[in-house]
Amino acid sequence: MPASIERLFANRDLHGMVRALRSFSDPQRREEAARALGRWGDSEVYPWLLKAVLYDDDALVRQAARQVLHEHLGAALDLALQVESSGGPEEQPWLVDEEVGSEDLTDTEEGLSAQEAEDLRGLILVAREEPNPAVRIRAIQSLGKISNLQAIRTLASLALHEADDRVQRAAYDALEGTFGEDLPAFLASLEDEAEPDQAEDAEPLPLDPTDPSQAWDSPAGVVNEEKAHTVVWVLMGVSLLVVVFLLILGLSG
């Protein structure tokens, strides 16, 4: 008997979760799997949810997968569906017998053959890590010709965050061939999702030296004030000693 959806989620068993999402015998289980993948916290589940939207024969399952994706992708969902569907229909049936066979359905790269998946991983590695910018640009141009979400995510990351201007521009141009005038909106949606919390990096507000409410607890101010008090007491002590000395001289005379 297959494990429960919550157990699969707790164990981070993506292989089991994808099989549950594709279980032909139980639409309710597929719907639960789609909603659980929405809580997965990793974009690696998006291709499977997109396939559920496109290829599942149950309207409730399609609706659940679409709702989950919309929560994560927003306005970019329609574009992501276009990219996914542009690769053509699945060669293998989308729905499978969850309890028959043990092959890991997550090993393949979104319906690619083993050789195509290997080539894709090689291109992504070169696009990201190759020291020679010219070689990276050629790999990026090749990725731009592949209708695959992993390739799209790689190009989007480079278009948004790459430090080398030439490589960044090549990634943008490669994506523009797929998204056209919708590309700025697509990249903006990804940037909004990945935007880090700026509160920790916020610069402190400048202090107004004329405002006592801001200056009273300055460590430097406290130290300087203590030094001033010390000097005053020393001067008062010296003055007292001088007065006492003069009185003694007057009495002795």
Set down the secondary structure blueprint.
Layout: H1 5-10, H2 14-21, H3 27-37, H4 46-55, H5 59-73, H6 77-85, H7 114-129, H8 133-143, H9 149-161, H10 165-179, H11 183-194, H12 212-215, H13 219-252
Helix pairs in contact: 2-3, 3-5, 4-5, 4-6, 7-8, 8-10, 9-10
Q: Your description of this structure?
A:
This protein has 253 residues and is mainly α. Among the domains are: 5-85, Leucine-rich Repeat Variant; 114-194, Leucine-rich Repeat Variant (Alpha Horseshoe). It is built from 13 helices and no strands. The longest helix is centred in the last third of the chain and has 34 residues, at 219-252. The model is unreliable at 195-227 (pLDDT under 50).
Characteristics of this structure?
253 residues; mainly alpha; Leucine-rich Repeat Variant; 13 helices; 65% helix
The largest sheet is: none
Q: How far is the N terminus from the C terminus?
A: 116 Å
- The strand count comes to 0
Instruction: Provide the CATH top-level class of the domain at 5-85.
Output: Mainly Alpha
Order of SSEs? HHHHHHHHHHHHH
CATH topology of the domain at 5-85: Leucine-rich Repeat Variant
Uncertain runs: 195-227
Report the radius of gyration as a whole number of Å: 33 Å
Query: Helical residue percent?
Result: 55-70%
Shape: elongated
The overall pLDDT average reads 76
- The assembly state of the depicted protein chains is single chain
Q: What count of helical segments does DSSP give?
A: 13
Fraction in beta strands: under 5%
State the CATH architecture of the domain at 5-85. Answer: Alpha Horseshoe
Class by SSE composition? mainly alpha
